[in-house]
Design goal:
Shape: globular
Number of helices: 6
Strand content: 15-25%
Number of domains: 1
Helix content: 25-40%
Largest sheet: 5 strands, parallel
Mean pLDDT: 89
Radius of gyration: 14 Å
CATH superfamily: Response regulator
Distance between the termini: 33 Å
CATH class: Alpha Beta
Order of helices and strands: HEHEHEHEHEH
Strand order of the largest sheet: 2-1-3-4-5
Length: 138
């Protein structure tokens, strides 16, 4: 088990929604945790295989997916795997990436992501997307 998986926030009964953060950079994981840990239970995956395993085993409100996982399989590979999992096909996936070239947003949305955030993004921008997901999936 990786350090990131062990870093899972303790379940809090007041937090009704659980997120998966797929991010290979530990500093970015920590920042995202600081943005969200007061209102969400968070699991962390630092690799494609770890993310796939966690999605299969758990129910999440959404997945915050880094597109460039650095080594091995990409976030788009993980997105495709999730879209092919029975019962997980409609799980909201938020692409988060430093790729901000023309056409990237469209490419990621066409590849199965539901939302797109270009790094760096603010706490407010992230929370706004998550609030929209909560409203749509009540």
């Amino acid at each position: 088990m990786s350090k990131q998986t062990e870093h899972r926030e303790k379940a809090n009964p007041k937090k009704l929604h659980r997120l998966l953060v797929v991010e290979d950079d530990e500093i970015t994981q920590e920042v995202l945790g600081l943005f969200l840990q007061d209102i969400y239970d968070i699991d962390y995956a630092s690799s494609a295989n770890e993310a796939i395993e966690l999605v299969r085993a758990n129910d999440y409100m959404a997945v915050l997916m880094d597109i460039n996982l650095g080594r091995g399989k990409s976030g788009l590979f993980v997105t495709n795997e999730i879209r092919n999992m029975k019962g997980k096909e409609r799980l909201p996936i938020i692409a988060q990436t430093a790729f901000a070239m023309g056409g990237d947003k469209e490419e990621f949305l066409e590849a199965g992501c539901d939302y797109y955030l270009s790094k760096p993004f603010t706490k407010t921008e992230l929370r706004d997307v998550l609030s929209e997901i909560k409203e749509k999936h009540k």
